[in-house]
Amino acid sequence: MGHCQSFDLSQLDDVPRKDLPDLIPFFHGMLVRNRRRPERDDGVFSFKTPEEWLKAPGIRSRYEGLIFRRNPGDNEEAKRIVGVGHQLFDRALSQAGEWEGSLTRLRDLRSPLAVFQFQDAVTGQNGQVRQVVAGVTAHDDGKLVLVRDEVVLETLNQLKLGAWDLGDPLEHAVPQSLTSWLNEARAHAIAALDVLRLPFVKPLIGDLALFWPETSDKSGQR
To answer: Cα separation of 70 and 158, whole Å?
Structure first.
């Protein structure tokens, strides 16, 4: 750990170039989903803690000045850094993992986006990678493409979240078109699996989520 600051990641092409600020949209969305309106000032969060999160030990009823960035100005600011491993952020992750919803319609999404999880059917392997998340979306010409987890994150982080996005029913969508597109996306993910260079002996694929454009025709294109 003492040498982690000087560790050179330039040769690790498979390591996503993501950092703490990329976690902000998720955390903010979780607060909104829990009917909280966080005060935000240049990436600094202050809010009353959602009641659901208070069930975990050590969670305070209110937080002031939480930040999602490294290199704090002083020791006091360092205590307010949030990321994976922070008990509050982990509680948000835990709550999100408990929800069964896996289909939503998004206003600014250009093309459908299916998210899949890959894992190795052969257990007992020595590799560090146990499971991988990837997505399938479409170019403007409708051609499907497999994208890595960081691209999935970038795509979703660029979208504007509104309260209606969190629970609005897909009353205008055609179920058969969703099923057909998801099946095509799944088949493409399996066929293009070599792109991910997974260290798996026998990869298994599972559906995680389907993000659908608010305005789309039956082919899935806007």
So the answer is: 22
Query: Is the pLDDT at 167 greater than 60, yes or no?
Result: no
* Nearest partner of 212 among 203, 204, 222, judged by Cα: 222
Which has the closest alpha carbon to 31: 92, 90, 82?
92
From residue 23, give the alpha-carbon distance in Å to each of 7, 43, 92, 140: 22, 11, 11, 28
The proportion of the chain whose per-residue pLDDT surpasses 90, expressed as a percent, equals: 45
Residue 43's region, left for phi above 0, alpha for psi from -120 to 50, else beta, is left
- The predicted model gives 12-35 an average pLDDT of 83
Q: Return the beta strands (E) in 97-193 as ranges.
A: 103-106, 113-120, 131-138, 144-148
| Inter-axis angle of helices 24-33 and 87-98, nearest 10 | 60
Specify burial of residue 186 (Cβ count, 10 A radius: 0-12, 13-18, 19+).
middle
Q: What is the per-residue pLDDT across 83-128, written as a single tens digit (0 to 9) for each?
A: 999 999 999 999 998 887 788 888 889 999 999 999 988 866 555 5
CA 186 – CA 209 distance, rounded (Å): 12
pLDDT band at residue 64, thresholds of 50, 70 and 90?
very high
Helices (H), the chain: 24-33, 75-78, 87-98, 149-157, 175-191
Give the pLDDT score at 127: 56
- Distance CA(117)–CA(205), nearest Å, equals 6
The C-alpha atoms of residue 3 and residue 152 are separated, in whole angstroms, by 31
